[in-house]
Structure formats: C-alpha cells, structure tokens
Design a protein that fits this description.
The protein is an alpha+beta fold. It has three helices and seven strands. The chain has one domain. Helices cover 18% and strands 32% of the residues. The strands form two sheets. Strands 3-4-5-6 form a four-stranded antiparallel beta sheet. The protein has a three-stranded antiparallel beta sheet with strand order 1-2-7, with no helix packed on it. β3 and β4 form a beta hairpin.
Length: 146
Amino acid sequence: MHNFEENVVESNESFATVFVESGYFFATEQLFMCFEELKQWAYNTGLNNGYVIVTQRSKTNVAGDKNKVFLRCDHGGVYKGKTTVRLAGTKKINCLFQLIAKYHKEEDGWKLKVVCGTHNHLTAIYMEGRELSKRLKPKLKVLLRI
C-alpha cells in the first residue's frame, strides 16, 4: 500500500493533471559512506513507494572523482527519439522529481537532498513491467555465475 498525497491541479472534460508529493520519503540526514550505498537506498525507497529512481547525470572534480550526482524519476525528461513515438506513447513525461547526492569532504561521506519532491504522475501499482525493476541484483548475478 502506498502512502501518497494526490492533488488534482487542473481538470476539464478531456484531461486532468495530477501532482503527487513524495519528497518526504527521501528526506534524510543520513551520511552514506559511498555513493553506491546512497544510490541503492534511493532506489529501494523509490521502489517501495511505486517509483523508479535513475541517475540523470554526474559531475566530477579535477581529480576525476564523482562529487555530485543528479537522480530523478524514470519518467523525467522528454522523449528525444528520431522516429515517431509508438501509439502507446513514451514513459518520458517530464516528471519534475529530482534528488541531488553530494560528497562532503569534511564529513567523508555522501548526503542526499530533495530538490523537487513532486511527481506529475501516479505511483505504479505493479512494478513488474518496469525496466529497472526487472534487472537482477548483484548478489543474484553472482549466484547465476556459479
């Protein structure tokens, strides 16, 4: 069962725009020792609440180490394909949800900040069809290799 607040902002006879606030699920003061730990926490928190969180882009310092990573909902962005969109459409619907992971040198760890906690779509009821939720976890990959 998902705990979310649903707000219908606009509606007329042909469409309705829905904004769902879920940023409070990701609000944490936790210090993560490595980026992979932070990313896994955000991914699991998203899945538990009906969203898939993906890496949008990252910034590196002069030494080439990641120091800032932008995470967002997999519905974020706009479809940029060269062919026409399938009849069913695209999952890219310019969702506003965004998180920033920053490395704090003085604390020697990563912190997560919610930039925009609002989605412009409802949560997924079933995660089975979502691409990222179908991937094997690293521990399962190791088992399959044996």
